[in-house]
Amino acid sequence: MGKRIVLAIFTAATPLLGCASLSQIGYVPEVAVFTANYTDKYVYYSLDDADDRPLNIGGSVHPFKNGGTGGTDCCRSMPDAGQKITVRWQEGTKDINADQTPLLHKTVIVRGSSPPSGDRFNYMIVRFFSGQQVEVEILSDPNGPRATRNPRRDQIFYGQRVMRKIGE
Q: Which of 12, 13, 29, 154 is 20 to 30 A from 36 (CA-CA)?
């Protein structure tokens, strides 16, 4: 009798485990999400996956003249390079009225390359540009004594006000 119960539980749970692992195909685990804003407006954003499911990431980003960065979300599974991601955002003043400001959205392909396995710091940068343009890139740096600064990481994160253009 006991073996039947164990077998029934295993049989019932196996499809669930398969779905959980399959849902992560094309994702990178343990990713920190940073934002860079190269516009003169405040940006309020959120991220959805390719099927328009919320990734529960978002927040506000200062305009370029005020530092151009926002908060950091850590550590989530995020779409890998080559996968689609939808960015939804509003642009305006610091005290934006969400009901009166258009909600913009754009589905983009995540730029970058799949991070190698091992002891690495993986992060995604969501960049906002003038003309309602946006791009998303995934990057990776080694941890520990081999730690180096990825040259693709925006200078804005180091306190340097260096303007960047989409695609750079």
A: 29
For residue range 72-128, list pLDDT tens digits in order: 988 889 999 999 999 999 999 988 888 889 999 999 999 998 888 776 789 999 999
**Residue 32 CB neighbour total at 10 angstroms:** 15
What SS3 class is residue 13? helix
Categorise residue 123: left if φ over 0, alpha if ψ from -120 to 50, beta otherwise. beta
What's the whole-model pTM score? Answer: 0.83
Give the domain ranges of the chain: 26-158
156: helix, strand or coil: helix
Name every residue whose Cβ is closer than 8 Å to that of residue 167 and which is 6 or more positions away in sequence.
Answer: 135
Quick one: which of 141, 146, 159, 128 has its CA closest to 39?
128
CB 135 within 8 A of CB 81: no
**Token pair for residue 87?**
């960015």
Separation between Cα atoms, residue 154 and residue 112, nearest integer Å: 14
- Structure tokens given for 39: 């516009």
> What are the residues whose beta carbons fall under 8 Å from the beta carbon of 151, sequence distance 6 or more?
none
